[in-house]
Write a structure and sequence with these properties.
The complex is a heterodimer of chains A (146) and B (383). Chain A is built from 5 helices and 5 strands. Chain A is α/β, with parallel strands linked by helices and 146 residues long. Chain A has one domain: Response regulator (Rossmann fold), CATH 3.40.50. In chain A, strand 3, helix 3 and strand 4 form a beta-alpha-beta unit. In chain A, helix 2 runs parallel beside helix 3. The longest helix of chain A is centred in the last third of the chain and has 36 residues. Chain A is globular and about 55 Å long. Chain B has 3 domains: 109 residues, Rossmann fold (3-Layer(aba) Sandwich); 75 residues, Helix Hairpins; 151 residues, Heat Shock Protein 90. Chain B is 52% helix and 17% strand. Chain B has 12 helices and 12 strands. In chain B, strands 2-1-3-4-5 form a 5-stranded parallel sheet. Chain B starts with a helix and ends in a 7-residue tail after the last strand. The relative contact order of chain B is 0.07. The chains are: A alpha/beta (146), B alpha/beta (383). The interface between A and B is medium-sized, with 19 and 26 residues.
């Protein structure tokens, strides 16, 4: 089976982490973009098509939760996986209530990451598929009215 | 003070004049006091060596060791004894010197018996007061120590949580880097490089250690006080059953007997069941670990006004006295690193405190250990 690369955006203020994580995902065949802050992430999303954002919760400036809200407002179909460096999973759960797909605890197991990433991408694909079909139905109905 | 109490005063009468001694003794006996008698300082000190006394009535003018010297000797070895001096009419200076040396008071001869009885009662009252004062001092010292212990644990908790936060980030970088190297070494072009196995082994060790460090940081952070810990009326019986179920294999292997002494009316507490489960898991797991084959764990409940008291008692190896003060400290452990992180009881202590409960431990080496949990019966914050 040919792997369809996921378009991933990694957002974390830890530059070394972003670098290594993106190298690893790239080696796995994903298409990776990176950002080191919430603002930067939103800028990337404006210009690059992204399937899944992997987003650190604790960042200086605009934190993960604020960034998540913005992403969901501007790009509702893009899936977000939260990364938490601290054990209080509350924030992560709060994030999921705000529309995040799932969360991961640092240091995360790579197999876990792969599975969650794949599922997030699948959900986005399915959602887009549903939207396409709905649009098609709309189109058919409109033309039938004529 | 009534007759019954007077009867309890242990009294020693010291005077070289036998006639005087027996008269006073007779009169005191009539009033419910039974003095022991001594004829000089030496006999007095000998008696005190063997028999505990409360009050000594001591003649100042005696052959042999003088009254004042006897007094000084008494005060040196029996600090709690109160001494009433008897002085001759002309020798008031003796009395004053005596008080300076620690006598309770002095009376001049000839002694009026009611006066003496009153003095004895006052002296005894003084002893009682001092005893109470001493008790209170000890209690306060104990309380202070406990407060210092709690404070220390809280600040240790805050610090270790902070450290765990900060360590997780570099740990994540190490994790990704090691994972990346491993991936590269796994690519076909790298399969034939020299000493590839050695590199793989090194990476394997790094990955194993990352997992170990991760377990520690996650455990440290796992108990961070939840913003909305869901307190509710909870039956601890099913929690105990559930937890013991998880430990079933060890319990069966060691053939451990569980004694249920739970009062069915005394098992409802106001706690967060999820956190409580973690507490029970840690305590029961420790109990199982402490036991040899055929040991037993006894679970008891009782109640006070506000609390349910749950006791988890094992008859295992016990905790040495020198370790009892340290068992709630983070990273204190007697197990090897793969058996325990030394955080279990630290977390238990933290959770129990955050649930408005208390935890105490008593233990004897070779006899076993008993953890006593005091858990609130109702929502104390709404009271």
């Amino acid at each position: 089976m040919i792997k369809i690369p996921a378009k991933v955006l990694i957002v974390d203020d830890e530059k070394d982490f972003v670098e290594m994580f993106s190298l690893r995902l790239t080696e796995q065949g994903e298409k990776v973009s990176t950002a080191h802050s919430g603002k930067e992430a939103l800028k990337v999303l404006e210009t690059v098509a992204i399937d899944v954002v992997i987003l650190d919760i604790r960042m200086p400036g605009m934190d993960g939760i604020d960034t998540l809200k913005q992403i969901k407002a501007l790009h509702p179909v893009v899936e977000v996986i939260l990364l938490t460096g601290h054990g209080s999973t509350e924030t992560a759960v709060e994030g999921m209530k705000l529309g995040a797909f799932d969360y991961l605890m640092k240091p995360a197991d790579f197999e876990d990451i792969k599975i969650k990433l794949e599922n997030a991408r699948k959900r986005k694909d399915e959602q887009e598929e549903r939207i396409r079909k709905a649009e098609l139905r709309l189109l058919l109905r409109s033309s039938g009215d004529l | 003070m009534n007759k019954l109490d007077d009867d309890k005063i242990r009294l020693l009468l010291v005077d070289d004049e036998e006639g005087f001694r027996s008269t006073i003794s007779k009169r005191l006996t009539k009033r419910g006091m039974k003095p022991v008698q001594a004829s000089d300082g030496k006999e007095c000190l000998d008696i005190l060596e063997k028999e505990p006394m409360d009050v000594v009535i001591l003649d100042v003018k005696m052959p042999g060791i003088s009254g004042i010297d006897t007094l000084k000797a008494i005060k040196q070895t029996h600090k709690k004894i109160q001494v009433i001096l008897l002085t001759g009419n002309v020798a008031i200076t003796d009395g004053i010197e005596g008080i300076k040396a620690g006598a309770f008071d002095y009376l001049t001869k000839p002694v009026e018996i009611d006066h003496l009885v009153n003095k004895i009662k006052q002296a005894f009252e003084m002893i009682r007061l001092e005893k109470e004062k001493q008790k209170e001092l000890e209690y306060r010292a104990k309380l202070e120590k406990k407060m210092i212990d709690t404070d220390r644990l809280v600040s240790l908790g805050t610090m270790s949580t902070g450290i765990a936060h900060e360590i997780n980030n570099p740990l994540a970088i190490i994790n990704e880097s090691a994972g990346f190297m491993k991936y590269i070494l796994g690519t076909p072009e790298m399969l034939k490089i020299p000493r590839r196995d050695a590199l793989m082994m090194g990476i394997g060790k790094i990955e194993k250690s990352i997992k170990r460090a991760g377990r520690i940081t996650h455990q440290l952070l796992g108990h961070v006080k939840k913003q909305e810990s869901t307190l509710s009326e909870t039956d601890i019986m099913p929690l105990l059953h559930e937890t013991l179920g998880l430990l079933e294999k060890d319990i069966k292997d060691k053939q451990i007997k569980i004694n249920w002494e739970i009062d069915k009316k005394k098992n409802i507490v106001w706690i967060d069941p999820y956190q409580m489960r973690q507490v029970l898991m840690n305590l029961l797991n420790n109990a199982v670990h402490a036991l040899k084959e055929n040991g037993s764990i006894t679970l008891t409940t009782s109640e006070s006004n506000d609390d349910i008291i749950l006791e988890i008692k094992d008859n295992g190896i016990g905790i040495p006295k020198e370790n009892l003060g340290k068992i709630f400290d983070p990273f204190f452990t007697t197990k090897s690193f793969d058996e325990g992180t030394g955080l279990g009881l630290f977390v238990v202590h933290k959770i129990v405190s955050s649930l408005n409960g208390k935890i105490d431990v008593t233990s004897k080496v070779g006899k076993g250990t008993c953890f006593q949990l005091r858990l609130p019966k109702y929502d104390k914050s709404n009271k």
